[in-house]
Structure formats: structure tokens, C-alpha cells
Amino acid sequence: MRSSDIRIREAKPKDFVRVAQMHYPAWRQSWKGIVATHVLDMIGTPQNWVDMHYPTTLKRGGWSMWMAESRGQLLGMMLLGPDLSNPNHIQIDALYVADQNQRSGVGGLLQRAVGVEIEQSREIGSHGHPLMKPVFLTALRTSDIVIGVLNASGAGLTDLPA
Fold it and tell me: Roughly how many angstroms between the first and final C-alpha of the chain, as a whole number?
């Protein structure tokens, strides 16, 4: 799948069921082996997220949910808003990509589409892979459209108007 085939848009309440159907299994899988299954069962259900979690979170000032789609299929979602401790920073509450779309760049497309910038560390982890760590996240007003572009040296990100 090419990135030009992927559409990023803000989720509306009518999308919540579809988002939860993708988000919930990905969320459970991400916590498998870390949190006991019975604890995950107590935390929530897809319907609970549709009825309570998404609406409550999105009522907070500046919060939004974004979805990545291609040919009618939901590929991923991101739920984010201003960080309570520093409103100039973004808090990503959820960023999940459907299992079959992992490692296809969907998460990065979601982040760039809404202007979330994450700088890649030059450090190398114990397995020889570069470590990714959030260095800064910039809060954007809804009217701002900024795309983070990794500069050629890989040392940071540059804001370019869309």
C-alpha cells in the first residue's frame, strides 16, 4: 500500500464503533504478557470506549481523534491533546495500528498529518536498532496544519507549512 492511498481524517462520533473495533484488539495485544487478562477485562470493553472513554476524552479542550483509512478499511487511530502539565506539549493517549498494517508507516503518517513531531535519537539500542524517544511534541491549534519532515541528516525535524 502506498502512502498516497491512505486518507487521514478526524474521527467523528459516528466513527467510534469502527475505531473501537480496531483499537481494542490492538490495545489488548499490546498489553498481553504485561497486564493479566482479567485486569484488561476489568479496564474496559469496546462498547465502554464508544460510550464513555472516547466522548469523555474528546470533551477535554483541544483533544481530538484521528484515523487512517484506505479503501474503506480502518488502518490506525490516534487520540491526543494538550498535556496537562505543559499545554505547549501534546499528550498522545493512544496511537494504534491494526495488526495487519503494522510496520507499514501508518503510525508515522498519523503523527505527521496532525503535526506531532518526534525526533529520532542518534543512540543505538542493545539490539543494534536506533532508539526512538520523544524529544519534543508541539501542540497545534486546529487551524494549524504542520507537517514534520525529517531533515536529511536525521538529526531533527523541521516544520513546513502544508
Answer: 23
- What is the grid cell recorded at 55? 466522548
Nearest residue to 13 via CA among 56, 45, 43: 56
3-state secondary structure of 93: strand
List residues bridging with 120 in a β-sheet.
132
3-state secondary structure of 86: coil
If 0-12 CB within 10 Å is exposed, 13-18 middle and 19+ buried, where does residue 79 land? buried
CA dist 155 → 7, 50, 60, 130, 134 (Å): 28, 39, 34, 12, 13
What does the alpha-carbon distance between residue 29 and residue 9 come to, in Å, rounded to a whole number?
25
> Per this entry, what is the length of the chain?
162
What does the domain layout of the chain look like in residue ranges?
3-161
String of DSSP letters for 121-153: EEEE-TTSPEEE---------TT--EEEEE-TT
List pLDDT tens digits, range 40-50: 888 888 999 99
CATH annotation of 3-161: 3.40.630.30
**pTM higher than the cut 0.70:** no
User: Could you identify the residue written with the cell 466513527?
Assistant: 15
